[in-house]
Predict the structure.
Amino acid sequence: MAAILNRRVLVLNQSYEPLMVIGARRAIILLLSEKVESLENYREMIHSVYLSMPLPSVIKLKEYARIRRKEIVLSRKNILKRDNHTCQYCGKKSVPMTIDHIISRNKGGQDSWDNLVAACVPCNTKKGNHSLRYIQMDLSKTPRKPTMILHLQKFVKQFQSSWRPYLFMQESN
C-alpha cells in the first residue's frame, strides 16, 4: 500500500494548464477536501474503513490558482533529465554519467543551462578543459534551459500514458 501512495500525480490548473507533479498521498487529501477533481485514475484502488476510491493520476484544481512560475533548478539531476541520461558528445547511454562544462571554468565558463551537458566518462576525459573546436568534438544538440512543460514531460513513465494529452505529447503505441 505504501508503494501505491508514492505514485506521482499530475496537477492541472482550472484552465488545464500543467502546474506540477505531487505525490498520491497529497492528491488524495486534496480530493477529500474537495479542492480538486480527478480527471484520470490509475487502475489501483485506495481502501479505508469508510471509503473506497480509485487512485488519482491526473487532478484539476476547482478554482484557478495564480502561480508565479518557479525557475527550474540548475542541478545535476535536472541536467541529466534534460539530456535523457545520454552523452551529448557520442550519444551513448552509460551508467556513470558526468556533467561537463562546454567552456571550462578556467576559461571563464559559467554554471548555466547553456554551458553544462551530460557526458560519459570517456568523452569527458577526452575533452578535458579544451574547447570543442580544438579537440574536434561536436555536441549532438545545443543545450538550452528546459521549459516547464518539457520538464514535466520527463516525469511521464509508461504506466502514466493518461498524462500525455495534458502535456502535449503524442500518444504512444
Remarks:
- The helical segments are 2-5, 24-32, 76-82, 121-127, 132-135, 148-153.
